[in-house]
Amino acid sequence: MSSVKLTVRRLYKLQEERMVNTRATARVYVGETLIATEEITGMTESPVSKYLHHRAGDGALRVEWDCEGIADMAVSEMQACPCCQHDEL
Fold first, then answer.
1. Which one in 32, 40, 59, 87 has a CA-CA gap of 20 to 30 Å to 2?
2. Is the distance from CB of 2 to CB of 89 less than 8 angstroms?
3. Do residues 3 and 81 lie in contact, with contact meaning Cβ atoms separated by under 8 Å?
4. Distance between CA 53 and CA 88 in Å, rounded?
């Protein structure tokens, strides 16, 4: 089993020149295979990460999202998951 780290770097929307909570839907892919759809709510300007496990094999990682506001997300492959210490190697 492989692990992927989804990091939300920024998430918010502007309302009357103030940052407020918003919602985003992130879709994480390995190659062309969708491995996870995550609903994210709240507000952050500091990175927040979540670890996802999959059996999709190898391929380029990417994240796509829909958001009412401003969002910035990234994905990276993990050799060992820090939350459960699972190690595929």
1. 40
2. no
3. yes
4. 11
Domain residue limits, the chain: 2-78
Model's pTM, two decimal places? 0.84
Indicate the residue type of 71: A
Q: What phi-psi label fits residue 63: left (phi over 0), alpha (psi between -120 and 50 degrees) or beta?
A: beta
- Is the Cα torsion angle 11, 13, 19, 21 positive or negative in sign? negative
Residues 7 and 3: their CA atoms lie apart, in Å, by 13
Banded pLDDT at 88 (limits 50, 70, 90): very low
